[in-house]
Amino acid sequence: MKKQIATPIQDGHTYGAFSDRDEAIWAASTEQFVDEGHRVFHDAQAIGGTVGISCDMCHPDASNTHPETYPKYQVQLGRVALLRDMINWCIENPARGRPLADGDPRMRAMEAYIYAKRKGVKLEYGRSRPAQRPRPGTASRVRWKSHRGSHSGRVAWTT
Ligand code: HEC
Q: Do residues 144 and 56 touch, judged by C-beta distance below 8 A?
């Protein structure tokens, strides 16, 4: 049932003034945003890399992206990083592309997708090295092809 809005004047019950239809629209647009992130994350061209690899090749289902641990100190960057800083680190390094601007729609969508995949995981900002040090037996080989030939590398993951 739709809630009736008796008067347009704010009476303090801000959330009570929204209808089921409003909520359905918000849910659909959030889903659309996350879907766009899923698309970019799986598209080697969309991230602008130069070696033909997409994020999911190393992070299937956004695994090992640990968005819940940000902000945290990242050794590669030598500073406290936000999630987007590590997304850019991966664009520049493994994917050999150019970093995206913070407000780039692809960056925004990928952040949305990565957070969406960790729904329910406890926020634990600042969690850094020790918890993420790879444990024996968790490493896997990753292979990808590019115009420069075939590549492979070892990626060691925890969770
Ligand atoms: C060739 C493999 C590879 C590809 C492709 C790749 N990554 Fe990564 N990514 C890594 C590795 C290795 C690390 C771990 C770096 C570290 O912490 O030492 C990492 C770390 C991350 C982190 C931080 C994880 C944490 O624990 O804090 C995020 C976020 C991330 N990648 C997102 C992305 C996104 C988004 C893309 C696509 C634009 C991408 N990665 C592409 C290998 C890859």
A: no
Q: How far is Cα 11 from Cα 4, in angstroms, rounded to an integer?
A: 14
Q: Bigger pLDDT: 133 or 9?
A: 9
Which tokens hold the place of 156?
Answer: 């060691």
Q: Whose CA is nearest to atom 29 of ligand 1?
A: 65
Distance 138 CA to ligand 1 centre (A): 15
Rg (Cα) of the chain, in Å, rounded? 20
Residue 87, CB half-sphere, CA atoms under 13 Å: how many? 27
pLDDT at 97 exceeding the cut of 90: yes
Sign of the alpha-carbon torsion through 25, 28, 34, 38: negative
Higher pLDDT among residues 97 and 76, named by residue: 97
